[in-house]
What we know:
Layout: H1 2-26, H2 32-54, H3 68-84, H4 90-111, H5 118-135, H6 144-164, H7 170-180, H8 182-195, H9 200-224, H10 230-236, H11 239-252, H12 258-283
Helix pairs in contact: 1-4, 1-9, 1-11, 2-3, 2-7, 2-8, 2-9, 3-6, 3-7, 4-6, 4-11, 4-12, 5-12, 7-9, 10-12
Amino acid sequence: MRVIVLTVLAMVAFAANSVLARLALSSGAIDAAAFTGVRLASGAVILGLLLWLRAGGAAALPKLTGSWTQSAALFGYAICFSFAYTLLGASMGALILFASVQIGMVTRAVWAGDRPALLEWVGLLAAAGAFVYLVSPGLTAPHPLGAALMIVAGLCWAGYSLLGRGSSQPLSDTAGNFMRCLPLAALLVVVGIWFKAPRLEGIVLAAASGAIASGVGYAIWYAALPHLSRTRAAVVQLSVPVIAGFGAVIFIGEAITPRLLIASAVILGGIAVAVVLAGRRRSG
């Protein structure tokens, strides 16, 4: 039961990032650059605090782990994510983000020599086809630049996840990667304020995205992750766009179009089938 509760809380936190970003950026309460800077900085602070508390409040600062390569991927994800949400709705953005993450990770696995079975290819091709349908021109198509930015954000997050795979101290590594982003985060805040002075509401939403939805969310996720198989962990993350969609309807008043519903069902279903079958093949 504890693992289920932790997993649900982590997925809600990840989905909240999309809702918080859209709330802040669509209202003009804060510039996308400043939002990114505040989010990264507040995430670094809360993750550093969690590490300090885990060490029993020791006077010595925890060792900075992670890597500059991972930090670059994290920063690429965060900046593209924010600017994408100036052009996309929360539910649309979350679906494009998580589909891009999974497609990026599957592509890397195939490139490395993993050979999916026939039914896995069917699931992947169905998901890819639905993704093309989702972003293709039409009355309800997402903004092309927004979609492109979110695809890059998803690929950056896929790269970040692949670089951190097998980490023995994921929470510490994540904290270190956030802390390495602090100089650029400070620069983004200054640039954002220069172009548009943020309102208190925007700062609070950005800080909540970084400290709670990202920092605390990652801490909860890493507490649940050791008790989940790789396949189950991948599949459960597909719930995030669905949760974000409900949050967008409730808190932002976004409309869910038939195009988004159809694409969501096929993309998430296709990826789920491929991931589950791949997990069985590897363990068989």
